[in-house]
Amino acid sequence: MTEQKTVTACLIIIGNEILSGRTQDANLAYLAKWLNDQCGIQLTETRVIPDVEDTIVGTVNEVRPRFDYVFTTGGIGPTHDDITAESIAKAFGVPWELHPEAHEILKEYYGPEGLTSARARMACTPRGARLVDNPISKAPGFQMENVFVLAGIPLIMQTMLESLKHRLTGGLPVRSRSVLLHLAESAIATGLRDMQNRNPTADIGSYPFYRQGKGGTSIVIRSTDEALNARLAQEVFEMAETLGGTPQFEESA
User: Fold this and answer.
1) pTM (2 d.p.)
2) Quick one: three-class SS letters along 82-133?
3) How confident is the model at residue 216 (pLDDT cuts 50, 70, 90)?
4) CA distances in angstroms from 232 to 6, 46, 139, 188, 219, listed in the order given
5) How many angstroms separate the Cα of 218 from the Cα of each of 115, 133, 186?
6) What whole-number distance in Å separates Cα of residue 10 and Cα of residue 110?
7) Rounded distance, CA 79 to CA 57, Å?
8) In 3D, which of 198, 197, 204 has the Cα closest to residue 223?
9) Cα radius of gyration (the chain)
10) Cα dist. 201→33, 196, 252 in Å?
11) Integer Cα distance of 177 and 234 in angstroms
12) How far is the C-alpha of 198 from the C-alpha of 95, rounded, in Å?
């Protein structure tokens, strides 16, 4: 565990069906929470891109030097529009070819007669790829350097994450404290700005809400330092009290 360095990740969600609105992505929220809680890795950027080879190649090559880890979801199935693996091969400048181990996994799963040419495409990876186990449907994901290529189906993506967890090295997880105020954001904006300026290592977020006919603001303090979070939450509480905001602490995450 590296406590000093912030370990970062980027998620690339690949799929025309996501961009069209036909399919709602369920992987972003899960991955962000899993990386933080399980590995101490902060998801700091997400891209949603189409099934277009040049876009996939360009995006992967843009982000992989900038982040400790890159994850992609979608586009590794058996159909003609599943072009992620081929595109990743182009991004790394290597051939896209049959992976012998992946081929054996699928042959055992489907049987010699059931392993059609379409299904066999799922055994093709960039040359040099390291497989990521898929306990559910067996078609593996793969790793190329710091890039992990995963399925788009949420349950399969989640099991793949568990399979690769031992390959990830993170830092301290981000924790949070929340204070609920019955105040408009504008009433506490100046105080929050001053608090943020004095505490640059914390992320202080302000989120308005409207519940049961009443408006208010939820203040969320996030950092890797739980003592700092507690101190700032108390400062927000006291600030809100002076403004008549009837604050209350919410459950920490």
Assistant:
1) 0.88
2) CCHHHHHHHHHCCCEEECHHHHHHHHHHHCCCCCCHHHHHHHEEECCCEEEC
3) very high
4) 21, 28, 47, 14, 10
5) 53, 40, 13
6) 34
7) 19
8) 204
9) 22
10) 20, 9, 18
11) 10
12) 52
Cα 245 to Cα 184: distance, rounded to the nearest angstrom: 9
In which residue are the tokens 């404290």 written?
177
Residues 89, 76: Cα–Cα separation, whole Å: 13
Instruction: Judge contact between 194 and 236, C-beta under 8 A.
Output: no
Is 241:181 a contact under the CB 8 Å cutoff?
A: no
Structure tokens at 8: 């970062």
17-56 pLDDT, tens digit each: 999 999 999 999 999 999 999 999 999 999 999 999 999 9
pLDDT (tens digit per residue) in 46-99: 999 999 999 999 999 999 999 999 999 999 999 999 999 999 999 999 999 999
pLDDT above 70 (res 2):
no
Q: Which of 245, 243, 247 is nearest to 233 (CA)?
A: 247
Q: Which two tokens stand for residue 221?
A: 């303090």
